[in-house]
Amino acid sequence: VLFSDIRGFTSVTEKGDPEQLVAQLNEYFSAMVEVVFAHHGTVDKFVGDMVMALFGAPLDDPDHAAHAVDAALEMLTELEALNARWAAEGRVSGLDIGIGINTGPMIAGNIGSESIMSYTVIGDAVNLGSRLQSLNKDYGTRILMSEATCAKLAGRYRVRPLGSVTVKGKSQPVALFEVVGRADDRHD
């Protein structure tokens, strides 16, 4: 599961024109949905300015962890392009996102009431993905993933271990890893 949230968007909404902000948010969502789809993901839902995406559900995907990390990295690239275009157009720009990725057992299915059902995932692994996204603010990072996700990536990415943290709802500490880039990316 991947959670992505725009940082500081609430303060942006207080200053901007509501109609323009809705249009801009829809442009952002459209771009992020395309990125998720391009990496074999499923968009579960939008909550405010948050995107929740699934990899490996509803269709099995043995490479789901790498597809989620690839999507996260491309989401950052796409946001940079949107910010550049918005700045050139004199619109709100400089937006940033925090992304959390977790791998683990999740219950997937149509959940809701008799009148409204949505396909989604629930469970402890989902909650941890959301918590990881929130921790980006505390660590000054943009993409955080769990040890469970990191273990499935076989050295395909440059990661930075950040130690362990006990997150809300968990009694045991969770090892955190920042995704820095792809292992084959050139860097200094």
Task: Label this structure with key terms.
5 helices, alpha+beta, two-stranded antiparallel sheet, 9 strands, single chain
Spatial gap, N to C terminus: 31 Å
> Assembly type of the shown chains?
single chain
Shape: globular
Rg (CA only): 17 Å
Helix content: 25-40%
Mean pLDDT level: 92
The spatial strand order of the largest sheet comes to 2-3-1-4-7-9-8
Which regions contain 5 or more consecutive residues with pLDDT less than 50? none
- Helix and strand sequence: EHHEEHEEEHEHEE
Compute the number of helices.
Answer: 5
Q: Report the structural category.
A: alpha+beta
The biggest beta sheet reads:
7 strands, mixed
Residue fraction in strands: 25-35%
Total strand segments: 9
Characterise the protein shown here.
This protein is globular. α2 runs antiparallel to α3. The model has no long low-confidence stretch (mean pLDDT 92). The chain is built from 5 helices and 9 strands. Strands 2-3-1-4-7-9-8 form a 7-stranded mixed beta sheet, with helices on both faces. Strands 5-6 form a two-stranded antiparallel sheet. The protein is an alpha+beta fold and 188 residues long.
